[in-house]
Design goal:
alpha/beta; Lyase, Ornithine Decarboxylase, Chain A, domain 1; eight-stranded parallel beta barrel; binds ligand LLP
């Protein structure tokens, strides 16, 4: 099960990728439900105490994907009204939903309070006052946590590291106590938790442990001041393998063991985690069709029908994602740039990449596309978004239709 080659043919679970793409065309995202379930269960089993796995739905917010985790008992980490809407539609228990983000508006706060989610993770005093004001209007008490900036270097890509002093996220470490004390004075605030998230695609568990130790110290200090933390939210960030030769992320067991060790003095608190990439990243591929080959001087270009509008990670972060033919023919290898149709030099899926060549009309799979793939897609160059497929065992289902030309202009007024 999962995504693998059998006799040189790529399969997602028990279904041949070639047969899916012949049916639904390209570009297409294809997910393995089995992989999603296995990842969730790996993490779930790693905990030895009360916990909640709140899937960071920004990684993959298709309703069927969210529902897969909800059915396993998972919750959701949301960052917008739209994500809360999706989580509720997919059947996530509101009591397992946490709300992250630095810029929640009154409207979003109201929607979260009306739906009685587990807690709103606040990042500033301004936001605290806003939540108190909105809760008062609704005659409610808002369960809140503060997101702490633990000032720990996560050793990941600068665009996805969030726990440093220079980042916009979280309450500065030295202001945390004062901020909680201020919250304690407000009538419509129920201090419920504490949260941190130091970055994404973490390949080393030491920064998570270091941050946890710093946060544990704060919980102790809060306790001394009579403030009792009921939920400790450790954010997301656990990395996955993008590059088989280089990436060696910690296992779920190691990651959880470090967290549990750091918070062992608070056994009654609920441990919340917000994994995104770990749950879905390696469970998805994006498949594109080779349209043309082109050589420019010494450079080979393999031009495909998917671009940065479909999968932006390589262009935006210089991220590496493996690309392989859907059918391996052991033909000649080439070093090439795999590029898309978008009118931008930065529109590439891989650069100076060695792979087996695929003839025009053949298919390429971009691996590890289950996280931050479709969710970051756009309609740039007026290209309809790809369709999404979920494979379950021997069969597959379209879980989001390919966009039509009419979808492209929906809402526009002439
Ligand atoms: N919790 C919070 C508060 C977050 O900001 C994030 C990710 C997560 C959880 C989930 O992190 P994960 O477990 O997936 O690492 N677009 C980038 C990743 C941006 C991550 C943003 N925040 C990429 O494609 O690599």
């Amino acid at each position: 099960m999962g995504i693998k080659y059998i006799d040189n043919e790529l399969y997602v679970d028990n279904v041949k990728v070639a047969s899916i793409v012949e049916d639904v065309k390209t570009p297409v995202y294809i997910y393995s439900k089995q992989h999603f379930i296995e990842q969730f269960e790996k993490l779930d089993k790693a905990f030895s105490r009360k916990h909640s796995i709140s899937f960071a739905i920004k990684a993959n917010s298709n309703l069927s994907v969210i529902k897969t985790f909800a059915e396993l008992g998972g919750g959701a980490d949301i960052v917008s009204k739209g994500e809360l809407f999706r989580a509720l539609k997919a059947g996530v228990d509101p009591q397992k939903i946490v709300f992250s983000g630095v810029a929640k508006t009154d409207d979003e706060i109201e929607y979260a309070l009306q739906n009685d989610i587990m807690m709103i993770n606040l990042e500033s005093k301004d936001e605290l006052y806003a939540v108190n004001r909105v809760a008062k209007k609704l005659n409610k008490k808002a369960r809140i946590a503060f997101r702490i900036n633990p000032e720990v270097d996560p050793k990941t890509h600068p665009y996805i590291s969030t726990g440093l002093k220079k980042n916009k996220f979280g309450v500065p470490y030295e202001e945390v106590l004062d901020t909680y004390i201020e919250a304690g004075k407000l009538d419509n605030i129920d201090i419920y938790g504490i949260q941190f998230h130091i970055g994404s695609q973490l390949l080393d568990s030491t920064p998570i442990y270091d941050a946890s130790v710093k946060v544990a110290d704060i919980i102790k200090q809060l306790k001394e001041k009579g403030i009792n933390i009921k939920a400790i939210d450790v954010g997301g960030g656990l990395g996955i393998v993008y590059n088989k030769k280089e990436d060696n992320p910690p296992s779920a067991e190691t990651y959880v063991a470090q967290i549990e060790e750091a918070f062992k003095d608070f056994p009654d608190a609920l441990l919340v985690c917000e994994p995104g990439r770990f749950l879905v990243g390696n469970g998805g591929i994006m498949v594109a069709k080779v349209v043309y080959h082109k050589t420019n001087g010494k450079k080979n270009f393999v031009i495909v029908d998917a671009g940065m509008n479909d999968l932006i990670r390589p262009s935006l972060y210089g991220a590496f994602q493996e690309i392989e033919p859907v059918k391996i023919k052991n033909s000649q290898k080439i070093v090439c740039d795999v590029v898309g149709p978008i009118c931008e030099t930065g529109d590439f899926l891989a650069r100076d990449y060695e792979m087996e060549d695929v003839e025009n009309g053949g298919y390429l799979a971009v691996f590890s596309s289950g996280a931050y793939g479709f969710t970051m897609a756009s309609n740039y160059n007026s290209r309809p978004k790809a369709c999404e497929i979920m494979v379950e065992g021997n069969s597959y289902k379209i879980i989001r239709k390919r966009e039509s030309l009419e979808d492209l202009i929906k809402g526009e007024i002439l």
